[in-house]
Write a structure and sequence with these properties.
Blueprint (H helix, E strand, L loop, with lengths): L7 H6 L37 H4 L4 H11 L3 E5 L2 H10 L6 E4 L5 H14 L2 E4 L5 H7 L5 E7 L11 H10 L3 E5 L4 H4 L9 E4 L14 E5 L4 H13 L5 H11 L2 H19 L5 E5 L9 H7 L7 E6 L2 H11 L4 E2 L9 E4 H5 L9 E5 L5 H13 L4
Parallel strand pairs: 2-3, 2-4, 4-5, 5-6, 10-11
Antiparallel strand pairs: 1-7, 6-7, 8-9, 9-12, 11-12
Helix pairs in contact: 4-5, 11-15, 13-15
């Protein structure tokens, strides 16, 4: 590992500069072992006992992510949902949490079903309405304020620093789903957040070949230790090879995200003038609500996700998505391929998503190919 202070892009590209001490390889080995040998005195001088709690394949990706987010520690999980739910499972029945109405739909569903049956008091509040958040938090009882920014799939932007101040004044923690922003664009811990969550399946991995999640904490406190203990005891762990793939993907993070952001900005601007597009939802557009907040807390770009509302309603939106050939009709985001999806169909009748909305995940293809393909599909949308 280098002793010099390097930029985040170098940290990611060199994965902290770690070199295998045995072979001097620049690429780490995969550690598939599930168990580790005890010493003759029955101890574990290696520090490893069982892979569910002590997987050596986690060390490097967790260290890289901790450095990129400016945190104290990180933990990998089997999925983004496993990582997010681990935060709430570290609470106690009766604790109060505040969540946004627009967020990762699977987590919202989990919170409103399993978590409430388990005993959490879940209150849904618009995080862009700071007065409403202040009114919702209950000093001494509210334990977590959860926010996703930009929020999938309307891409609303919340003021992390302001929300951190409100949460801390009530004795609560602020947890931020920063999957879309990534540490390339936003570092929530530096803005006052306590925990950052990533669906690492998305931009951190970036190749649509790993399902993973991650948490980064700003404080290695008792709450964090409960999260780590729950991960080991409940078994929501990532496989060794998946951790290796995730590290490989993270090494190109600072090459992939800026390129995708530039393409998304171009798409948003061009689609804004299309006659069959009612609205473009993208934080990089000056008229978008939250644009000024995004300018303050997002550095170097506004993300590679946007949504469009199509003239003619749900039928026209679905028909337009059916006509694309370069874009891939698939769930997920953050891969090298560009994805298009009629989001309301996926989320179901309780979704806050307008029925005419198409969600776009911009990949690494030539932006003119993406624009041409989508423009051609939209040209006939109302019919």
């Amino acid at each position: 590992m280098t002793s010099k202070k390097t930029s985040p892009a170098t940290v990611a590209a060199q994965a902290l500069g770690w070199i295998d001490p045995v072979t001097r390889a620049v690429v780490p080995p995969v550690h598939p072992s599930s168990t580790f040998v005890r010493d003759s005195d029955n101890g574990y001088s290696s520090g490893r006992m069982y892979a569910r709690a002590d997987c050596p394949g986690y060390d490097q990706p967790e260290a890289v992510l901790t450095e990129l987010e400016g945190g104290r520690a990180a933990a990998l999980f089997a999925s983004g949902l496993a990582a997010a739910s681990a935060v709430f499972l570290a609470l106690a029945p009766g604790d109060h949490v505040v969540i946004p109405p627009v967020m990762y739909w699977a987590l919202r569903h989990w919170l409103l079903t399993f978590a409430t049956r388990w005993g959490l008091a879940v209150e849904m509040v618009d995080p862009t309405d700071l007065d409403a958040v202040r009114a919702a938090v209950i000093p001494g009882r509210t334990k977590v304020v959860w926010v996703e920014t930009p929020a999938n799939p309307l891409w609303t932007v919340s003021d992390i620093a302001a929300l951190a101040g409100i949460a801390h004044a009530a004795g609560a923690r602020l947890a931020v789903d920063s999957t879309v922003a990534t540490p390339v664009l936003t570092r929530p811990l530096a803005l006052g957040a306590d925990i950052v969550m990533h669906s690492a399946t998305k931009y951190l991995n970036g190749h649509s070949d790993v399902v993973a999640g991650a948490l980064v904490t700003g404080s290695d406190d008792d709450f964090w230790q409960r999260i780590k203990t729950n991960r080991a005891q409940m078994g929501g762990i990532l496989g060794s090879f998946e951790a290796w793939l995730l590290l490989r993907g993270m090494r190109t993070l600072f090459a992939r995200v800026p390129l995708a952001c530039r393409s998304a900005q171009t798409l948003a601007e061009r689609l804004s003038t299309h006659p069959n597009v009612l609205e473009v939802l993208y934080p990089g557009l000056p008229g978008f609500p939250g644009h000024e907040t995004a300018r303050r807390q997002m550095i170097g770009g506004f993300g590679a996700m946007l949504s469009i509302r199509v003239q003619g309603g749900a039928a026209a939106a679905i028909a337009a998505a059916a006509r694309v050939t370069v874009w891939k009709r698939a769930t997920s985001l953050g891969g090298v391929e560009s994805f298009i999806e009629h989001r309301a169909t996926i989320e179901g009748p309780t979704s806050p998503v307008p029925p005419d909305l198409l969600r776009l995940s911009v990949g690494l293809e030539a932006v003119e190919d993406l624009i041409g393909d989508l423009t051609e599909a939209l040209d006939r949308a109302p019919g």
